[in-house]
Each structure stands twice: as C-alpha cells, then as structure tokens.
From TrEMBL:
InterPro entries: Cys_rich_dom
Domain Cysteine-rich positions: 3-80, 134-218
UniProt-recorded name of the protein: L-lactate dehydrogenase complex protein LldE
MF annotations from Gene Ontology: oxidoreductase activity
Organism, scientific name: Nocardioides aurantiacus
GO cellular component: cytosol
Length: 262
C-alpha cells in the first residue's frame, strides 16, 4: 500500500511533533509512508468561510500532490472532512469536470488517522504505553462530518497503563471553529471555558484530541488558568511506547519524556 501523510497547515507551522508522531506510529505498524513536499493547504479555511472560488487552486494542488497514492492519512478530522466532503462541492461549483474526477479519487482515499488504523489496517492495539490520566475530546468535524465515532477511544483503551477518564459534555463543541473564534470571540471563549471546566473536573493530566486546532484553543485556556493539564494529539499518545513517550504539545504539568527519533 502506497500511503501519503497530509500533515496539515497547522501541523506544519505550529505542531510538527504531531506529524512526526504519525509517521513514527505508521512505520511501527509496518506502513511505508511518504511526505509529498508539494502539498499545501487543503482549502478548508476558504471553504468554511464561503470563499469556494478562492479554494479552487488549493483543491487542485491537493489532488496533484496526492495523486497516485492508495491512501492519504491526516492527523486531523477537519482536514480529512474537507478532502472527503468539501472538495467535491468546490469542483462542482467551478464546473471543472477534470477536477471533479480527480477529487472523486482522492476524497475517498483520505482518512483521518484513527479511521485508517481501525478501518484500513484493522488494528486497535498499536503497542502504545502511556501511564497517565487522560481524557478525550471528540472534535466536531471528526464526530459530525466524518462519523469517526468511538474509533479514537477504541485505540486509547488498548494503550498500556493509561487511565482513561470520561469527559463530561464530550460531544459539545470546544468553541474554536476556525474563523468562528475570531468572528464570534465572546461565544468562542464561553464555549472554550465550559470545555476547560469539564476537562478539569476529570482530574486528568492530559487532554487528548484528534485535531491540533481544538487542542490549541482549549489548551490555551487551560494554560492561562494554570490548570496543570497538558494537551496532546492522539497521534502523540499512540506513538508513545514504554520508556519512550512523546512530550505533549501544550502547556501543562504532565510528565515529560524523551522523543523517539523518526
């Protein structure tokens, strides 16, 4: 199987350890993964803001970068959702049959990380070890657009020595929503404060999610509150092994570990 990593804009710019963890995890499971250097933004920010015409070049770049791969794996429910559901809408609006045909290939081949592990590779035990108290936030796009369901939890339940705690109001939006956090900042802050409160109520050391954007939003609040909760992407937890776990990407006080080389 020829697999490509779509690292996402946010991962490339702010959270490179998430991409590294994804590659490390996939290689540990015997998957040869490439990183197409021609990849750019998937176009989601423009699409979500209603700028479908402006998203056309980004969608064209996406299909060019990832053509020829059997699977495209991304550590982001929102970016996977854009490729699988929104790219076709952009191509139809543009009236570009060639682009529509290309999107019909790359869209179904794009998988959020937990989907790829559970549905394509057929594994839930990835050999991870993470001896910390963890709570999981299911992000809106993974939950509602992709229908990822409990796949991330299936994976987390198999992690050695993990103390997995249920998050109250788990399916409620954290309030980030991309440009929503800018255009509706007061509402976004209120929603984020609710989510942070629920996280603190669990007593967990680590908040885990499948989208770095949500972790950035809630993690910022937890950091300002000095809550002592670290944020980590699902890929980082699943890439952790006994004696070699990944340091979290957000502020907090969960134990730090050395990082296994890619």
């Amino acid at each position: 199987m020829k697999v490509a990593l779509q690292v996402t804009c946010l991962g490339d710019a702010l959270f490179p350890d998430v991409g590294k963890a994804t590659v490390r995890l996939l290689r540990r499971l015997g998957v040869e993964v490439d990183f197409p250097e021609a990849q750019t933004c998937c176009g989601q920010p423009m699409i979500n803001s209603g700028y479908l015409d402006e998203a056309v070049p980004a969608v064209r770049s996406f299909v060019r970068a990832f053509e020829g791969y059997d699977a495209i794996v991304t550590p982001s429910g929102s970016c996977a959702g854009a490729a699988r559901h929104q790219h076709a809408m952009v191509a139809r609006r543009a009236g570009d049959e060639g682009l529509a045909d290309a999107v019909a290939v790359t869209g179904p081949r794009t998988h959020e990380l937990s989907e790829f592990l559970v549905d394509v590779l057929g594994v839930t035990d990835v050999g991870a070890s993470f001896p910390h108290a963890v709570t999981y936030h299911p992000t809106c796009h993974s939950l509602r657009m992709l229908g990822v369901g409990d796949r991330p939890l299936q994976l987390l339940r198999e992690v050695r020595d993990i103390d997995l705690r249920e998050l109250p109001g788990a399916t409620e939006c954290c309030g980030f929503g991309g440009t929503f956090a800018v255009k509706n900042s007061d509402t976004s802050i209120a929603m984020g404060a609710d989510k942070a409160r629920h996280v603190r109520d669990t007593g967990a050391q680590v908040l885990v999610a499948g989208d770095a954007s949500c972790l950035m939003h809630v993690g910022g609040m937890l950091g300002r509150q000095r809550a002592g909760v670290r944020t980590m992407h699902l890929a980082e937890v699943l890439a952790s092994t006994e004696g070699l776990a990944v340091e979290g990407s957000g502020a907090g006080s969960a134990p730090k570990h050395t990082e296994e080389p890619v």
